[in-house]
Request: fold
Amino acid sequence: MSLTALSHCGPRCSLAVRHLVQQRSLWAGTFRSAQLTALPKAPDAAAGFVRPPRQLSSSTVAQSAAAAPSVLSRADVITDHPFNNITDTIFQKIGVNLHQQPGHPIGIIKGAIHDYFDSHHPTTFTKFDDLAPIVAATANFDEVLVPADHVSRSPNDTYYVAPETVLRCHTSAHQAEILRQGERAFLVTGDVYRRDSIDATHYPVFHQMEGVRVFGPQDWQASGMEGAQYAEVELKRTLEGLAQHLFGEVEMRWIDAYFPFTEPSFELEIFFKGQWLEVLGCGVMQQQILDKNLGPGQKAWAFGLGLERLAMVLFDIPDIRLFWTSDQRFLGQFKAGNMTTKFKSYSKYPPCYKDVAFWISDAFTENNLCEVVRDIAGDLAEEVKLIDDFTHPKTGRTSHCYRIAYRSMERSLTDDEVNALQEEVRSTVATKLNVELR
Ligand code: DAH
Reply:
């Protein structure tokens, strides 16, 4: 998703790393590297299978498998409200819950992180992994102090069911609600949704894990530290341990960052396979969030990380779309609890490139184009890339040319099928995006 006015990677973010597995940050100037996921055998959209928002459970057990999933119909998610920007492609991802599948790479990473917290802090962290992804806009933004004019609130970046309801764009959306329930240490895993570009590391649905731990005066008084300092030291110690648990003995460094919900804020980077790689974002929770939702006199740390990003790096998974495949040549390579798998590509089928050029209008955005392409081509769209950007010196009109790479990860595509997709993209772009084809 394009995130901020400065929606590009800061100077400390190596281009090579970004290329490999990066995720654009929601937060000004920083570059989150969390994202990432790809196309499942789409469940039957018409059948509807989404869990509606419901009470948060507070069990310390990872899953509430016993809870019968309620059904949320397509009509609950895709409405004709002018603000609604959810497509069928997105609707079909809701309720798939890759993070709840123990043998799926996303579930394996979640399990490894749970193992770490369970072994270092037995029974301390309450785990949530079935909170519905449809949340109030206030929870997604206001309650975690995202400024009113922040770009992440734009419908160009976030999926809106209605002006006051969104598909969460981060698991931080649950912080305040869970604190209000009195939880003092918790991990929340879930699918998050962002309108974004199309390439090997960006996908409009991916999975995050959020962690929060609250401390009271009895925790820091004995240490001789102030509360905020204690929380920061505790945070860094905990997350360095986590990185080591996942990556082994690696060099690490802390980078100052900005997030609306923490102060100070940091990113943890590790030196892995010859590159500095961002692992997570974190910080000392903004006092206001804690005071308002839990009560005064406490301190807390919080972190957020992207499971696809970690899985891609740890398992050598080259394309984020693979997470959604039902192909056993992919899924069969992974096993619950096994963190040492290195993915072996099965044959790579040839890509087919098609260009589309048009005069843009002021309202044109690349995210809107990508949304059109995804809705037509699904996971056959591997990349959408701007290859020419030209402004006519006399008329002042701007023309863009995008190259779309079509490629299936499962089979060879025929010319006819790609041509049909491209034709549909062209005509939809012309009618829906208010651009003039060239
Ligand atoms: N919500 C952030 C994101 O999506 C990740 C994050 C960063 C979560 C820092 C946190 C945190 O809780 O403290 O990019």
